[in-house]
Design goal:
- It is a single chain.
- This protein is of the alpha+beta class and 284 residues long.
- The chain contains four helices and 16 strands.
- The chain has a seven-stranded mixed beta sheet.
- β10 and β11 form a beta hairpin.
- It starts with a strand and ends with a strand.
Amino acid sequence: MKVEPLAVTSLPPMGAKAAELTAKARGGTARTASPQRARAARAFHELQLNLCNSGKAACYADGQAVFEGGDLIYVLAPDLVTLNEICSVDLPDYLQPSLAEAWPDDWTYSVFQPALNKATGQPITCTNGGTYGNAVLGRVPADLWQGADGWAGQYTTQDSGNEVRTFACAYAIGDHLSCATHLSAASEAIALAQCRALMFDAVPYIRSEEGISGKTVVGGDFNLEYDTSDPENVQKCVPAGNVRKGDGDVQHVIFSNDFVFTGRSTFGMTHTDHDALLIKLSKP
Protein backbone atom coordinates (compact mmCIF):
# COMPACT_ATOMS: atom_id res chain seq x y z
CA MET A 1 0.00 0.00 0.00
CA LYS A 2 1.42 3.35 -1.06
CA VAL A 3 1.13 6.28 1.37
CA GLU A 4 1.83 9.75 -0.01
CA PRO A 5 1.88 13.36 1.23
CA LEU A 6 -1.41 15.24 0.94
CA ALA A 7 -2.13 18.97 0.82
CA VAL A 8 -3.48 20.52 4.02
CA THR A 9 -5.82 23.50 4.22
CA SER A 10 -4.73 25.42 7.34
CA LEU A 11 -6.62 28.51 8.42
CA PRO A 12 -5.49 30.99 11.10
CA PRO A 13 -8.00 32.13 13.71
CA MET A 14 -10.94 33.57 11.77
CA GLY A 15 -12.83 35.43 14.48
CA ALA A 16 -16.16 36.82 13.23
CA LYS A 17 -15.26 35.99 9.61
CA ALA A 18 -16.21 32.35 10.14
CA ALA A 19 -19.71 33.32 11.26
CA GLU A 20 -20.06 35.50 8.18
CA LEU A 21 -19.15 32.56 5.94
CA THR A 22 -21.57 30.11 7.54
CA ALA A 23 -24.39 32.66 7.54
CA LYS A 24 -23.79 33.34 3.84
CA ALA A 25 -23.98 29.60 3.09
CA ARG A 26 -27.35 29.50 4.85
CA GLY A 27 -28.69 32.41 2.82
CA GLY A 28 -27.81 35.08 5.37
CA THR A 29 -29.30 33.43 8.46
CA ALA A 30 -27.18 33.77 11.59
CA ARG A 31 -26.86 30.94 14.09
CA THR A 32 -28.93 31.07 17.26
CA ALA A 33 -27.27 28.29 19.32
CA SER A 34 -24.02 28.54 21.26
CA PRO A 35 -21.12 26.09 21.03
CA GLN A 36 -20.46 23.77 23.98
CA ARG A 37 -16.86 24.73 24.78
CA ALA A 38 -17.03 24.54 28.58
CA ARG A 39 -15.01 21.43 29.42
CA ALA A 40 -11.81 20.30 31.09
CA ALA A 41 -8.64 21.90 29.79
CA ARG A 42 -7.16 18.57 28.65
CA ALA A 43 -10.32 17.28 27.00
CA PHE A 44 -10.14 16.10 23.37
CA HIS A 45 -13.41 15.33 21.58
CA GLU A 46 -13.69 13.47 18.26
CA LEU A 47 -16.84 13.59 16.12
CA GLN A 48 -17.41 10.93 13.44
CA LEU A 49 -19.85 11.80 10.63
CA ASN A 50 -20.99 10.00 7.48
CA LEU A 51 -22.93 12.67 5.54
CA CYS A 52 -24.05 10.70 2.46
CA ASN A 53 -23.58 13.68 0.16
CA SER A 54 -22.44 12.14 -3.12
CA GLY A 55 -25.87 12.59 -4.66
CA LYS A 56 -25.82 9.01 -5.90
CA ALA A 57 -26.96 7.02 -2.86
CA ALA A 58 -30.51 6.52 -1.61
CA CYS A 59 -29.69 8.39 1.62
CA TYR A 60 -28.81 11.63 -0.25
CA ALA A 61 -30.88 14.61 0.98
CA ASP A 62 -30.04 17.34 -1.53
CA GLY A 63 -27.04 18.58 0.47
CA GLN A 64 -28.95 19.12 3.71
CA ALA A 65 -26.75 16.63 5.59
CA VAL A 66 -23.79 19.01 5.21
CA PHE A 67 -25.71 21.81 6.90
CA GLU A 68 -26.90 19.40 9.60
CA GLY A 69 -23.36 18.11 10.13
CA GLY A 70 -21.84 21.57 10.14
CA ASP A 71 -24.40 22.78 12.66
CA LEU A 72 -23.58 19.82 14.91
CA ILE A 73 -19.87 20.60 14.58
CA TYR A 74 -20.57 24.16 15.67
CA VAL A 75 -22.74 23.18 18.65
CA LEU A 76 -20.52 20.33 19.93
CA ALA A 77 -17.24 22.19 19.21
CA PRO A 78 -15.09 19.05 18.84
CA ASP A 79 -11.33 19.13 18.49
CA LEU A 80 -11.41 16.64 15.62
CA VAL A 81 -13.96 15.56 13.01
CA THR A 82 -13.61 12.52 10.76
CA LEU A 83 -15.86 12.69 7.71
CA ASN A 84 -17.12 10.12 5.19
CA GLU A 85 -19.17 10.50 2.03
CA ILE A 86 -18.63 14.24 1.69
CA CYS A 87 -17.62 16.32 -1.30
CA SER A 88 -14.49 18.42 -1.58
CA VAL A 89 -16.50 21.66 -1.80
CA ASP A 90 -18.33 20.87 1.46
CA LEU A 91 -15.20 21.59 3.51
CA PRO A 92 -14.52 25.21 2.48
CA ASP A 93 -18.20 26.02 1.94
CA TYR A 94 -19.51 25.00 5.36
CA LEU A 95 -17.74 22.35 7.42
CA GLN A 96 -14.39 24.04 8.15
CA PRO A 97 -16.01 27.47 8.70
CA SER A 98 -18.40 25.79 11.16
CA LEU A 99 -15.49 24.48 13.23
CA ALA A 100 -13.72 27.84 12.94
CA GLU A 101 -16.87 29.58 14.16
CA ALA A 102 -16.98 27.28 17.19
CA TRP A 103 -13.30 28.06 17.92
CA PRO A 104 -12.83 31.64 16.61
CA ASP A 105 -9.46 32.12 18.35
CA ASP A 106 -7.85 28.86 17.17
CA TRP A 107 -6.28 27.44 14.03
CA THR A 108 -8.24 24.90 12.00
CA TYR A 109 -6.97 22.45 9.39
CA SER A 110 -8.47 19.97 6.93
CA VAL A 111 -7.36 17.28 4.50
CA PHE A 112 -9.53 15.62 1.86
CA GLN A 113 -8.86 12.49 -0.18
CA PRO A 114 -11.25 11.41 -2.94
CA ALA A 115 -12.36 7.88 -3.60
CA LEU A 116 -11.39 6.78 -7.12
CA ASN A 117 -13.27 5.32 -10.06
CA LYS A 118 -11.67 1.91 -10.58
CA ALA A 119 -12.24 1.98 -14.35
CA THR A 120 -10.65 5.39 -14.94
CA GLY A 121 -8.41 5.95 -11.92
CA GLN A 122 -9.97 9.41 -11.57
CA PRO A 123 -11.74 10.86 -8.52
CA ILE A 124 -15.43 10.06 -8.20
CA THR A 125 -17.53 13.18 -8.63
CA CYS A 126 -20.49 14.41 -6.59
CA THR A 127 -23.63 15.94 -8.02
CA ASN A 128 -22.64 19.28 -6.44
CA GLY A 129 -19.54 19.44 -8.63
CA GLY A 130 -16.97 18.44 -6.02
CA THR A 131 -15.11 15.17 -5.68
CA TYR A 132 -16.35 12.46 -3.33
CA GLY A 133 -14.34 11.05 -0.43
CA ASN A 134 -13.08 11.24 3.15
CA ALA A 135 -11.73 14.11 5.21
CA VAL A 136 -10.14 15.03 8.50
CA LEU A 137 -11.05 18.36 10.05
CA GLY A 138 -9.47 19.61 13.25
CA ARG A 139 -8.54 22.53 15.45
CA VAL A 140 -5.47 23.37 17.50
CA PRO A 141 -5.26 26.16 20.11
CA ALA A 142 -3.38 29.12 18.68
CA ASP A 143 -0.60 28.91 21.27
CA LEU A 144 0.08 25.26 20.33
CA TRP A 145 -0.10 25.59 16.54
CA GLN A 146 3.05 24.43 14.71
CA GLY A 147 1.55 23.62 11.32
CA ALA A 148 0.08 20.42 9.86
CA ASP A 149 1.14 17.72 7.41
CA GLY A 150 -1.23 15.63 5.30
CA TRP A 151 -1.02 11.99 4.19
CA ALA A 152 -3.23 9.77 2.06
CA GLY A 153 -3.38 6.41 0.36
CA GLN A 154 -5.54 3.79 -1.29
CA TYR A 155 -5.90 0.20 -0.20
CA THR A 156 -4.20 -2.60 -2.12
CA THR A 157 -7.13 -4.91 -1.37
CA GLN A 158 -10.37 -3.73 -3.00
CA ASP A 159 -13.77 -5.34 -3.56
CA SER A 160 -15.34 -6.01 -6.96
CA GLY A 161 -17.22 -2.68 -7.04
CA ASN A 162 -16.17 0.39 -8.99
CA GLU A 163 -15.09 2.49 -5.99
CA VAL A 164 -11.44 2.44 -4.92
CA ARG A 165 -11.48 2.96 -1.15
CA THR A 166 -9.02 5.45 0.32
CA PHE A 167 -7.99 7.16 3.56
CA ALA A 168 -6.83 10.63 4.59
CA CYS A 169 -4.62 11.56 7.55
CA ALA A 170 -3.34 14.78 9.08
CA TYR A 171 -0.62 15.39 11.64
CA ALA A 172 -1.15 18.56 13.64
CA ILE A 173 2.50 18.96 14.46
CA GLY A 174 3.30 18.40 18.12
CA ASP A 175 -0.34 17.77 19.01
CA HIS A 176 -2.09 14.79 17.37
CA LEU A 177 -2.30 12.52 14.31
CA SER A 178 -5.72 11.71 12.88
CA CYS A 179 -7.08 9.63 10.00
CA ALA A 180 -10.46 9.10 8.35
CA THR A 181 -11.57 6.21 6.16
CA HIS A 182 -14.61 4.49 4.66
CA LEU A 183 -14.11 0.77 4.12
CA SER A 184 -15.65 -1.75 1.73
CA ALA A 185 -19.43 -2.15 1.98
CA ALA A 186 -19.45 -5.26 -0.24
CA SER A 187 -17.26 -7.61 1.79
CA GLU A 188 -16.56 -7.70 5.52
CA ALA A 189 -13.42 -9.75 4.85
CA ILE A 190 -12.08 -7.05 2.55
CA ALA A 191 -13.15 -4.29 4.95
CA LEU A 192 -11.18 -6.03 7.71
CA ALA A 193 -8.13 -6.38 5.45
CA GLN A 194 -8.35 -2.66 4.65
CA CYS A 195 -8.74 -1.76 8.31
CA ARG A 196 -5.70 -3.84 9.25
CA ALA A 197 -3.67 -2.27 6.43
CA LEU A 198 -4.51 1.18 7.77
CA MET A 199 -3.92 0.43 11.44
CA PHE A 200 -0.96 -1.97 11.21
CA ASP A 201 0.85 -0.54 8.17
CA ALA A 202 -0.16 2.99 7.13
CA VAL A 203 -0.51 4.62 10.55
CA PRO A 204 2.82 3.22 11.85
CA TYR A 205 4.49 4.37 8.62
CA ILE A 206 3.16 7.93 9.02
CA ARG A 207 4.13 7.98 12.69
CA SER A 208 7.64 6.89 11.73
CA GLU A 209 7.93 9.48 8.97
CA GLU A 210 6.71 12.23 11.30
CA GLY A 211 8.79 11.02 14.24
CA ILE A 212 5.86 10.68 16.63
CA SER A 213 4.83 7.93 19.02
CA GLY A 214 1.41 8.80 20.44
CA LYS A 215 -1.81 10.87 20.36
CA THR A 216 -3.35 9.12 17.36
CA VAL A 217 -7.08 8.94 16.50
CA VAL A 218 -8.61 7.06 13.55
CA GLY A 219 -12.33 7.35 12.79
CA GLY A 220 -14.67 6.24 10.08
CA ASP A 221 -17.41 4.08 8.69
CA PHE A 222 -15.62 0.73 8.80
CA ASN A 223 -18.58 -1.39 7.59
CA LEU A 224 -17.56 -3.79 10.36
CA GLU A 225 -19.32 -4.57 13.64
CA TYR A 226 -18.02 -5.46 17.07
CA ASP A 227 -19.06 -9.11 17.39
CA THR A 228 -16.73 -11.60 19.02
CA SER A 229 -18.48 -14.50 17.26
CA ASP A 230 -17.83 -12.99 13.82
CA PRO A 231 -14.58 -13.84 11.98
CA GLU A 232 -14.61 -10.23 10.75
CA ASN A 233 -14.92 -8.70 14.21
CA VAL A 234 -13.74 -5.09 14.01
CA GLN A 235 -11.64 -5.61 17.13
CA LYS A 236 -9.23 -7.63 14.98
CA CYS A 237 -7.93 -4.42 13.44
CA VAL A 238 -7.14 -2.73 16.76
CA PRO A 239 -3.37 -2.87 17.40
CA ALA A 240 -1.91 -3.32 20.86
CA GLY A 241 -1.69 0.03 22.62
CA ASN A 242 -4.98 1.24 21.11
CA VAL A 243 -8.62 1.34 22.19
CA ARG A 244 -11.77 1.15 20.03
CA LYS A 245 -15.16 2.70 20.73
CA GLY A 246 -18.12 2.54 18.34
CA ASP A 247 -21.73 3.48 17.76
CA GLY A 248 -23.07 -0.07 18.20
CA ASP A 249 -23.09 -0.46 14.43
CA VAL A 250 -20.38 0.14 11.80
CA GLN A 251 -18.83 3.47 12.79
CA HIS A 252 -15.78 3.32 15.04
CA VAL A 253 -13.02 5.43 16.54
CA ILE A 254 -9.67 3.83 17.39
CA PHE A 255 -7.31 5.87 19.55
CA SER A 256 -3.90 5.35 21.13
CA ASN A 257 -4.02 4.59 24.83
CA ASP A 258 -2.15 7.77 25.76
CA PHE A 259 -5.66 9.24 25.54
CA VAL A 260 -8.16 8.44 28.31
CA PHE A 261 -11.72 7.58 27.29
CA THR A 262 -14.25 9.68 29.22
CA GLY A 263 -17.55 9.20 27.38
CA ARG A 264 -19.50 8.51 24.23
CA SER A 265 -22.67 10.01 22.73
CA THR A 266 -24.64 9.41 19.55
CA PHE A 267 -26.91 11.89 17.82
CA GLY A 268 -29.69 10.95 15.44
CA MET A 269 -29.34 12.63 12.04
CA THR A 270 -32.28 13.58 9.84
CA HIS A 271 -30.53 13.89 6.47
CA THR A 272 -28.17 10.91 6.45
CA ASP A 273 -28.51 7.23 7.30
CA HIS A 274 -25.85 7.18 10.05
CA ASP A 275 -25.94 8.62 13.55
CA ALA A 276 -23.24 11.08 14.54
CA LEU A 277 -20.77 9.56 16.99
CA LEU A 278 -18.98 11.70 19.59
CA ILE A 279 -16.05 10.15 21.45
CA LYS A 280 -14.85 12.12 24.47
CA LEU A 281 -11.20 11.72 25.40
CA SER A 282 -8.72 13.49 27.61
CA LYS A 283 -4.98 14.02 27.41
CA PRO A 284 -3.44 12.96 30.74
